[in-house]
Amino acid sequence: MKKNHPYRFLVIITLFCLQFSSAQNTLFSDYASNYGSWTNGSNAGTGFSTWDLWTQNTDATHFAGHFLGSSSGQGFGDINSSGTSFSMYANPSGTFVQANAQRFLTSTGSPAVGGRQYLLPGQSFKIDLAIAFRNGYKGIDLMDQNFGLLFNFNVGSDMYATTTNANLGWAYNQTSVFQLQVNQTDTNAYEVIITRGSDVYTSGIRTGQFSGFKLYVGNTDGGNDLNNLHANNLVVQNCAMTTTWNGTSWDKGEPNANKNVVFTGNYASTAGFNACSITVTNNAVVIINATHTVTVENTVTVDAGSNLIFENNASLLQTNASAVNVGNITYKRDAAPMRQYEFTYWGSPVVGQVLNVFSPLTLGDKFYSFNAVSNQWVIENQLNAMTPGKGYAIRAPQGYTSTPQIFSGAFVGVPNNGNVVVPVEAYNVSLGNYNFLSNPYPSAISVVSLVNNSSLGSFYFWTHNTPINANVFTADDYAVRTKFIGVAAVSGGASPSAYISAGQGFFAQSNATGNVTFTNSMRVANNNTQFYKNSNANTSTQTDPDFYFMWLNMTNSGGAFKQLALGYLDGATDGFDNGIDAPSAAGTYISFYTLIGTAPYAINGKAYPWDIDDTLAIGYTSILNGSFDIAIDHFDTFFNDKDVFIEDTSNGTYHNLKISPYTFTTAIGTFDSRFVLHYQDLSLSNDDFSGNENSVYVFKENNQPKIVSTKSNITSVIVYDMLGRIVLSKDKINTSEVVLSDLIANNQALIIKTTLENNVTVAKKFVF
Questions:
Q1: Coil, helix or strand at residue 362
Q2: How buried is residue 379: exposed, middle or buried, by Cβ count under 10 Å (0-12/13-18/19+)?
Q3: DSSP secondary-structure letter at 72?
Q4: DSSP structure class, residue 45
Q5: Most CB within 10 Å of its CB: which of 178, 248, 545, 666?
Q6: ω into residue 732 within 30 of 0, thus cis?
Q7: Is there a cis peptide before residue 92, judged by omega within 30 degrees of 0?
Q8: Contact 145, 117 (CB under 8 A)
Q9: Is the peptide bond before 609 cis (omega within 30 degrees of 0)?
Q10: Span 534-542, mean pLDDT?
Q11: What sections of 219-348 are H helices per DSSP?
Q12: Taking the chain, what is the end-to-end CA distance rounded to the nearest angstrom?
């Protein structure tokens, strides 16, 4: 048998040094060490088809075959894994005797033909080869998924040759190790790079989609192992190739999540993009425009003299928490128009941002943090660097007037990435203490993920809607958010969305003292436009089949406003649930809240499923007397077919808020037992109503539900299931009896609401 020397093919791509600084991710691989024997149909790797091994023109004197051998043991360079490589021989010459080994890719994620897939843009295939020429021919054919030949590397006739070069001109070296790499640069474009030590060959961009290969050896003389061919280390990777922007175009196709990206020339984004890594070099200025998200798996490197700038509302999202960024970015964030003496809550998305460098015209004693233990503001030294995850209140620059003016902040530093740990204090109802935190990343984070992975439960965002008065701010400007919903600030504006923007500072209630750890898994693409104070924020509510809320407002004609939210959530209880219920932030003029026990809450999530007999206590505090309205602001579609009554216990009134707001007058004070929310009108729960209620009977007759009214005719009937859904409705009945023959028996509890001709409605539970 004949066996070969290795010529190793090292991976070299554009900008060699930069390439090797990037992490390469193996998608699937195969090695000779995985095999006890190498035969047709064997497959000990992943992501490849089974080996298709065959020989040609063999007989009793003409031999070809396949075996597991040692490339270094047979005089070649070392491409072994655990001492073995895939080895092939074919001899004697003159009869075109040949050994072949063929396989295809099967797990790249591309469309398949007969199970054969191809490389997606940015993916790379690598194989190590050990070949000596001198005798016969040996090599590798690269193929598309229809067995079409894309490219050939051949060793024979005393030269190394490729499809594009009849002679690479490389000197003979029997211990050479070659590495052949195929980069799929675009959907229908690829390149081949072959390396041998310092020798490098690049095919240039060619048309096609790489799917598989065939190794071959033939026409050699017997008796010399160096006539063999050895192969090993089959790997498919992403992040193994680089595309470079030179100021005009990409040399290896558009960026994507499989490619490293290098900027050597100026660039302004027209859309967001993904990359394995980003490097900005050669004094390039790269601008990521507003609302665009750049998602990077690994590192961001900005060389000295170069600039990577994220405009307001743009995002840098990184997924690998271990990636260590190098060099400064500039992350811009506009606060909504500010007046003199007004503050905005900030947090730094970069390392080392000094407070007075961020806002150089703010007075030196107008930078604040908050001590949750002592429950008081703390003046920060203006020379301090902002701590990631910590919130800061920064006053408008000197020179601002009563006319609102936009403050454009610019954070400059290494972008924060990975885990950020911040200490927090448990919320105490009597103290009302909160933690002053911030989003530590140059991308938005998910409130849901933050609640699910921390002790935090509710969040309070300073909108600063109200001008300062006599150097005093109003608590009315806090908008509230829990895991699922938000409520607007007393002073109006949008309710907070399910995401916290980059650079945003906020207060948070924690159910435990300890640490909160921000992680990359909380980061999200886009959703980075709601920055408080920001008058253009959009209301965002979550929709879910087991998640139903309504929002109520209390207002007066003078502009007093307070909003609460209440509803039903799968997994909630009727008591306090961290992340679902939010303690109420007191308003300056009025507070309006639901009660859990005796404590006031701005957001109250009750146990699901909904029941028509549910009630909710609603309280308020006012330093104003006079007339107010309670009204439904909006509600989830779950409440479309449900009545919502507010009971005023001061006068026994039941009012349907689905029809109109309820107007009432109040004295100054706190009133925690005046209002109760209902889903049915119990206003006639006096003797007259009781008489009507007792005169309505629901029972089975001939296995069908029958309703009988003994005092007055029935005008309509509505049947609900216990989730509040209407399962049957009848009107214009005008008789004292009705049989619900259309109702299908399902052994379920139902609510049957019967309306009588005197406009009394009687609700009865019935199992059918």
A1: coil
A2: exposed
A3: G
A4: S
A5: 178
A6: no
A7: yes
A8: yes
A9: yes
A10: 34
A11: none
A12: 85
Q: What is the DSSP letter of 690?
A: H
* 374: CB partners within 8 A, 6+ apart: none
**What whole-number distance in Å separates Cα of residue 452 and Cα of residue 272?**
28
Tokens (6 digits) for 174:
């029997």
Cβ 217 vs Cβ 90: under 8 Å: yes
CA distance 223 to 135: 12
pLDDT number for residue 495: 66
pTM to 2 decimal places: 0.76
β-bridge partners, 480: 460, 487
Q: What are the tokens at 651? A: 């006068």
Beta bridge partners of 645: 656, 678
Are 720 and 726 a contacting pair, CB within 8 Å? yes
pLDDT tens digits, one per residue of 33-56: 999 999 999 999 999 999 999 999
Q: Which residues of 360-371 are buried (b: 16+ CB within 10 A; e: fewer)?
A: eebeeebbbbbe
Element at 286 (helix H, strand E): strand 285-288
Contacts with 136 (C-beta within 8 Å, 6 or more apart), sequence order: 90, 91, 93, 156, 217, 218, 219, 220, 221, 227
Q: How many CB atoms lie within 10 A of CB 402?
A: 10
Whether 532 has a pLDDT exceeding 70, the answer reads: no
pLDDT, residue 415, reads 98
DSSP E strand boundaries for 372-519: 376-379, 392-395, 405-415, 420-424, 435-438, 444-446, 456-462, 478-481, 486-487, 499-500, 505-510, 514-518
> 205 burial class (0-12, 13-18, 19+ CB within 10 angstroms)?
middle
Give residue for tokens 């549910």: 614
Name the pairing type of β-strands 669-678 and 714-721: unpaired
> Residue type at 452?
N
Cβ pair 117, 111 in contact under 8 A: yes
Mean pLDDT, rounded, of the chain: 87
Please tell me what DSSP assigns to residue 694. H
Encode pLDDT of 617-642 as tens digits: 999 999 899 999 999 988 888 888 88
pLDDT, position 693: 56
* Banded pLDDT at 724 (limits 50, 70, 90): low
Residues 176 and 171: their CA atoms lie apart, in Å, by 10
**DSSP conformation class of 17:** H
Q: How far apart are CA 642 and CA 662, in angstroms?
A: 17
Rg (CA), the chain: 37
**Tokens of residue 314, six digits:** 């743009």
List Cα–Cα distances, 591 to 506, 554, 597, 620, 655, in angstroms. Answer: 21, 9, 17, 5, 21
Q: Under a CB-based contact definition with an 8 Å cutoff, are residues 263 and 279 in contact?
A: yes
Token pair of 403 as six digits? 């006319």
Other Cβ atoms within 10 Å of 212 Cβ, number: 23
Instruction: Compare 656 and 80 and report the one with higher pLDDT.
Output: 80
Most confidently modeled range among 61-75, 90-104, 111-125, 676-690: 111-125
Side-chain half-sphere CA neighbours of 102 within 13 A: 15
Contact 565, 502 (CB under 8 A): no
DSSP secondary structure, 341-397, as one string: T-EEEE--SEET-BHHHHSTTS-TT-EEEEETTTTEEEEPPTTPBPPTTB-EEEEPP
Strands across the sheet containing 478-481? 435-438, 505-510, 456-462, 478-481, 486-487
How many CB atoms neighbour CB 204 within 10 A? 7
Return the residue matching tokens 């958010």.
481
How many whole angstroms separate alpha carbon 557 and alpha carbon 701?
55
The DSSP string of 603-637 is EEEEESSP-TT--EEEEEEES--EEEEEEEEEE-G
Handedness of CA 147, 149, 153, 156 (dihedral sign): positive
**CA separation for the pair 479, 321 (Å, rounded):** 31
Q: Which of the 8 DSSP states describes residue 504?
A: B
Range in 127-131, 211-215, 338-342, 727-731 with the lowest mean pLDDT: 338-342
**What is the spatial distance between Cα 102 and Cα 505, in angstroms, rounded to a whole number?**
59
The answer on pLDDT for 687 being more than 50 is no
For residue 622, the cross-strand partners are: 590, 669
